[in-house]
């Protein structure tokens, strides 16, 4: 069935109905910050920090935590969102081929949380790094569950690759205060989002950062059903030291974008000095003679694990 087309006359009718609705409610239009979105409702924080459950008007686009919206009150703690203000940035998640769902809006930092448990996926980490590069967002790698790390485990070994890259790497534990001060400083004056695999401790970290706030680690039915604490939708928190932090639901993979290989290569930042220097302009950086990337790898300037992940992402992103 084709999508419903709206004629100009219908558009005018919708506009005038909206105008009448606006005039008939008690509240006046005001700007607000979306704290969370649950199904067909969103929690909006007003300028006076009061929270309102708001219904969503049609044709708004997908509202998400971090969005700035225009809304008006209908009752004491309820309202309606009538417009979405333009986003300065957004982190989107590919759901199916070329269809993206926003995870967080108006952020300037992405904190990619990893841990030794569940086992680290460097492919997922690299996917996020490529996504951040494409979306022009600054990534920070946060290794949580420091208490479970040992000198020779897989995560410690893998992190040796990432500490050579130009990204900050932080270590934290929620069972000890390890790294929390540093994390507080990193989050100050920024709007950040926690992303990563399910179970790495994103929500637990927020509990540690905001011990006085009533945060449920994990959500509702999923917790009871599976005995697991799982976040089901993004939610924004104000930090006492300044800055906002958005918790997002964990993912299993983040690798379904359709992206040209050249764009993926740009997201592997240490490849940059060698891009465009291969003998063949259409070089796949596999076995070709005169491949600058392979040469850089052989002389130790690029880690083989990153080249391997680059090829896996090219295969995945282009499938
Ligand atoms: N040992 C250890 N366990 C931790 C640490 N941080 C969190 N955990 C545990 O890890 C489990 C998952 O924590 P959550 O905070 O729910 O993880 P999440 O990343 O928010 O998961 P999703 O909401 O599913 O994405 C819980 O059982 C926590 O108690 C840590 O620093 N050390
Ligand atoms: Mg969570
Ligand atoms: Zn090459």
In short:
By secondary structure, the chain is an alpha/beta fold.
Percent helix range = 25-40%
**What global shape is seen?**
globular
Number of strands: 13
User: What structural class do you assign from the helix and strand content?
Assistant: alpha/beta
Mean pLDDT: 87
Report how far the terminal alpha carbons are from each other: 28 Å
Give me the strand/helix succession.
Answer: HEEEEEEEEHEHEHEHHEEHHH
Number of alpha- plus pi-helical segments: 9
Query: Assembly state here?
Result: single chain
Rg, Å, rounded? 22 Å
| Spatial sequence of strands, sheet with the most strands | 10-9-8-11-13-12
Quote the beta fraction.
Answer: 15-25%
Identify the bound ligands: guanosine-5'-triphosphate, magnesium ion, zinc ion
Largest sheet: 6 strands, mixed
Which residues sit in consecutive blocks of at least 5 with pLDDT less than 50? 218-227
Please give a structural write-up.
There is one protein chain. The protein has 319 residues and is of the alpha/beta class. It has helices spanning 8-24, 122-135, 154-162, 180-187, 202-209, 220-226, 261-267, 292-298, 304-317; strands at 30-38, 41-45, 51-56, 68-75, 78-84, 90-96, 99-105, 109-114, 138-143, 169-171, 191-196, 235-238, 244-247. The strands form three sheets. A six-stranded mixed beta sheet has the order 10-9-8-11-13-12, sandwiched between helices. It has a five-stranded mixed beta barrel with strand order 1-2-3-5-4. It is globular. The model is unreliable at 218-227 (pLDDT under 50). Bound molecules: guanosine-5'-triphosphate, magnesium ion (MG) and zinc ion.
């Amino acid at each position: 069935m084709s999508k419903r087309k709206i004629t100009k006359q219908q558009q005018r009718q919708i506009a005038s109905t909206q105008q009448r609705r606006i005039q008939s409610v008690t509240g006046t239009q005001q700007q607000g910050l979306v704290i969370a979105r649950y199904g067909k409702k969103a929690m909006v924080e007003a300028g006076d920090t009061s929270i309102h459950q708001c219904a969503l008007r049609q044709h708004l686009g997908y509202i998400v935590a971090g969005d700035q919206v225009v809304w008006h009150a209908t009752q004491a703690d309820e309202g309606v969102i009538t417009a979405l203000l333009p986003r300065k940035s957004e982190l989107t998640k590919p759901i199916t081929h070329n269809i993206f769902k926003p995870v967080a809006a108006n952020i300037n930092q992405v904190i990619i949380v990893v841990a030794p448990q569940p086992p680290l996926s460097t492919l997922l980490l690299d996917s996020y790094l490529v996504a951040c590069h494409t979306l022009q967002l600054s990534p920070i790698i946060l290794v949580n569950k420091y208490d479970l790390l040992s000198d020779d485990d897989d995560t410690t070994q893998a992190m040796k690759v990432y500490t050579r890259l130009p990204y900050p790497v932080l270590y934290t534990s929620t069972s000890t205060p390890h790294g929390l001060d540093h994390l507080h400083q990193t989050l100050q004056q920024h709007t950040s989002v926690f992303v990563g695999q399910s179970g790495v401790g994103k929500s637990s970290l927020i509990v540690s950062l905001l011990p006085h706030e009533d945060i449920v680690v994990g959500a509702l039915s999923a917790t009871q059903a599976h005995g697991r604490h799982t976040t089901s939708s993004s939610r924004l928190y104000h930090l006492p030291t300044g800055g906002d932090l958005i918790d997002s639901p964990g993912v299993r993979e983040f690798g379904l974008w359709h992206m040209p290989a050249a764009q993926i290569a740009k997201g592997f930042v240490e490849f940059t000095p060698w891009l465009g220097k291969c003998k063949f302009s259409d070089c796949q950086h596999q076995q070709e003679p005169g491949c600058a990337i392979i040469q850089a790898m052989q002389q130790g300037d690029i880690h083989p694990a990153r080249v391997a992940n680059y090829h896996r992402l090219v295969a995945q992103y282009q499938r």
